[in-house]
Amino acid sequence: MDDMDDMDDVKYQLLGNSNITKKNQSKLKKYGKKITIILLSIVILIIVYLYYQTYIPNYEKILIKGESRKDQYGIDLNQYVLNGIYSMGYDGDINKKFEDWSLYTPQCPDLEPAQYPENIRNPKCEETSLQFGNLYVNHGKSLPFSLPLNSITNQLNQWKDWEKNNKDKEPPYYYEMSFKDSVTDEYHPFDYGYQGPDTSEISDQEYYSQVIKSRMDEVPDPRRRRLFFFILFNNEFDLLDLHISEYYDVVDYFVIYEANSTFTGGPKPLSFTRTLLETNRYDKFKDKLIPLPLTIEVNDKDTKLGKTFPRERVARRVLIEKGLRAVEARHGDIFVHGDLDEFPKANILYRMKKCGGWEHLQMGIGGGPKSFKDTNIKSYFVDKNMNIEIDDRGSYKVDYQRAYSLGFMGWFYEYSFHIINNDDGPGITRPNLLIFDARRSLGQLPERINSKPKNNNNNNNKNKNKNKRKEEIEEVKREKEGEHIDVLLDPNFDPYQGYTYSNNTNYQFNGKGYIAENIRLSIASFYENVRNANTTLLWNGGWHLSTFLPNLDIAYNKVMSYSHSDSYRYLPKFIGKNLLKYRINRPSFIYGSFERLKNYIIKLPQSYLTGYQYNFETNYWKEMIKNNGTDSEFKEYVNVLTHDVPYQVWKNPICYNYMLDRDYGINKKLWWDYIPKEKWNNFKFKDLELLIINDLLPKNITGTYKDEYIKTLKGQ
């Protein structure tokens, strides 16, 4: 072979110069192929390595298990971790501790529950009001409707008077009533279903201990109703810290769902559950925290939504069902469901929890469960002869409500409060709030309904009965007159069946029961898509803190867990992170279009010591709206309401500086970057040098506010 190669070399000698030989072209081709194959192999190995590093962490698992942890009322806060659940370790290492995790961030030093002023925490209900979006005018971007509230005691008394004076009259059909007619100053009949005395003299420990042991067909005192948050969690500890501390005082329990895999299918550590069980991070708040770690069991069969969204929606369904069970929900309790980055305004939550007069907007005419103990009231879960109609998705078609839920008309921020998706008006309608209905839970028919019966057009029949449902109840009672059936004495009867769905292994709707994700899906998520003027949205209701995460690593981890993460999923990690950084600095939305987002002016309190000065007095709002909002001071007040930030953010501007200026954590240092890691958990900001404090304070922290903050920080 070598001789043949030499002959080829001779063949290509240049004429006139025997010392110069032209390269063999076939030889170049052969070497070229080898080089191409080698380079291609190297590229493939790099891609495989990057894919492995990005998508295939160590699958070795650790068993996470807790001991019973009952609160003062008897609720076991660890009830969902008693049997244990397997989880991957931090960074794929089962021996690694939380503090050594690559995504670990320290908690804000001295973080305490938000201390709202007395007029917010305990509103004078007879003098206060609640604002709702007026979608009839300028698509809700103008002045709101203002609904007068009342004390629940007064509401109970007014219901008794209304019921006595309207026995033979039709109820208000709230479902068919226009929204503007539902928020007038007059009394809107609502039945809490409560017949008992005022329980205010009973201590909390005694009262709530009795409530959680009570029968589901017994109605607690609505003046002492509870408020629950049901939240989806990934690994966003800084948002979780903010969420819990912002609402700790007004919320009775937080049920926090996390799975040992992401909605995209990749494994993830059960970081919140482990943190709660293994560290002291949440010791100040843990008496209200209920971890709900689960394995996502939805199969991978494609639907029109793909594979990730069905997992997310079933997760919401399971969270709400198990959350209601965990907190021992009873008739009239309120619960909020949303994502961790969806923040309702606390001043609204206080008014809704402690005041009455708004409930008809969600629950309609209301009513409570009837006792199985004293009557022949039946459950359609048990008595199949009741023949309750079921829709094509398996939902029972029973008229319990005016609206599936109420939404919070909020502003859609991206990365920071000074970056907004749309500054022309609200961006989102979430989270969602509703009242727990024991009638639905038990499968009881309501006494009054919210839609006019189809056969009710005949004037001769108008006053025969309260409505069709009342007739159905009486008919069922007559079927077995005198026979006593108490289904709550049957150990196999599930008192929460009305809030369950029988098949959560897929998203094909081949089960039967309550489709809890409709709490969220019943209202268009983006405000601009809301078309029905009767949609009930709490005006200036909150904030959407999209990707409000302290640094690039945590933000990237979050987007890789999204149900809509295709923009990053197939990119090597270093490319994906740089793409995300580019989008943040531009700024543009986290995925999709690269169109620049808008700058938004943040309105901080004038004084750090006094905070925002809120006024929701009924007469004030009535007068301002009557005058079309022309008063200059009122205009400025509305401007503050549409540009304010959560309590904990303005109260802790160093901890949450990245929420006020997005350069922090991306192009500027965060507070823990100045401090050795071994000091993170015990550090006090008063020990920082003034020069560093100034570096850590956003530029919009100025004047009196800044001076008061620094003096407070230094203990002066």
TrEMBL record:
- Which Gene Ontology terms of cellular component type are present? membrane
User: For this UniProt entry, which segments traverse the membrane?
Assistant: 35-52
GO BP annotations, alphabetical order: N-acetylglucosamine metabolic process
A GO molecular-function descriptor: beta-1,4-mannosylglycoprotein 4-beta-N-acetylglucosaminyltransferase activity
The protein's name is: Glycosyltransferase family 17 protein
Annotated keywords? Membrane, Transmembrane, Transmembrane helix
Species source reads Anaeromyces robustus
Region Disordered, annotated ranges: 446-477
Q: Which InterPro entries match?
A: Glyco_trans_17 (IPR006813)
Residue ranges of coiled coil: none
The lineage's top-level taxon is: Eukaryota
Alphabetical list of Pfam families matching this protein: Glyco_transf_17
Compositional bias, Low complexity, is annotated for 452-462
